[in-house]
Amino acid sequence: MILEWICIIIYSASLVMILFYALSQLNLLVNYLKAHKETAVEIDPVFLNPDQLPFVTIQLPVYNELYVMKRLLQNIALIDYPKNKLEIQVLDDSTDESLEITSNEIDKLQILGFDIEHIMRVDRDGYKAGALKEGLKTAKGEFIAIFDADFLPDPDWLHKTVGYFQDPEIGVVQTRWSHLNRDYSILTQVQAFALDAHFTLEQVGRNSKGHFINFNGTAGIWRKQTIYDAGNWQGDTLTEDLDLSYRAQLKNWKFKYLENVTTPAELPIVISAARTQQFRWNKGGAENFQKMFKRVLSSDHLSFKTKFHGILHLLNSTMFLNVLIVAVLSIPMLYIKNEYEHLKVYFIVMSFFVISTVIFFICYWFMYRNIYGGGFKKFIRYIGMFFAFFSIAMGFSLHNSIAVIEGHFGKRSEFVRTPKFNLSTIGSNWKTNIYLRKNMSPHVIVEGLLTLYFIFGMYSAFIVGNQGGDFGLFPFHLMLALGFGFVFIRSLTDKQ
Which of 44, 47, 323, 441 is 20 to 30 A from 123 (CA-CA)? Predict the structure, then answer.
């Protein structure tokens, strides 16, 4: 019975953690709805006198971006802002032929009168954080706008954002990501769904009540003074954006999130690219928890709710580990439930935790309705999207849990960029992308075994007990089998 009790304790602890996270999401939903009610129409502050516009530096940190560099620079050239108050820094750590393409495009823009500089380093020390820090040394702008290589800001982007810095307490303005290729596949749809939840429910829900949010690494603009005051960019985590965001807010700088200003970007279209991005984000989240949680808890000026949301924010990625634990232990728990009659009351109490899924379903519906609109047809479509999102997210739980464990235990790893594709030019020939990984992730074999494991869990529903089976966990095991099966099959069929 010792092993059974160990399963019960670990299973219960993970369920409680997931419930806490769900309740925090519910609180963010309440904040989100209140924010929309209070500020139904928000007018962007602008500089009425063009002469008062501040000097802005746009930083473009890039590394081996052969397929998107021309598009990026041509788009940045469309930014509507006085050339005498705009500087562009291309922070280029590339080591391939994209260097020549970038250099040629920069020459063209310089001829057109743009103040644009091609900054190259000897090595990638500090990765993206190191490149941003290097560029900051010579940046002329009072404000620093940052765009990753696949982001395409609208021409009026600076006019929609820079005016908020008339409030001297604001250190960062972050805009919402939108998606150039949302409907490319079920994989891109699920990624868009997850990001939309973050950029609506979470960012607005936290920001509207003064809780900590994060600069998302791109599509935002910093007050240069804020970066220096917070200790500058640091490359000791894989999510330098989250790290600097927390250090800045601990210094009492305010962040302004603009839900209604969108910046389109490209979603990874192959599973290997999605794996790369997910691993970096989730490991970086765990690294930042280890780096920042004591500073958050010991801060004198933060309220209890802000600390609560901050800790759970830093633990976002760790929820994948809890999901994996609950998933793996759910099948032994199914047998324990039907073997030990005296534990019946415990399992009745445990059934309460299905409310976590209900909370997520409700929260994400409001997000989905706000973006796509309501109505019966949209709700039916949402049910399918929610089912697909939850299944595939759980299918990534092994991969992401490994990243989380490495992050918490301080294992260092290289900053691996997410391959970009630019389908408008490469089209259906995306498999020729030279940046795709050639080797299959070793986690794929385990994900295939977990697919079979959860199919066994579905089978177990028919044979346990003496009352004709137990189907309470059958939907859960079905979603797990489909999720891990999707990740496993796509990993085999997509060129790695």
Answer: 441
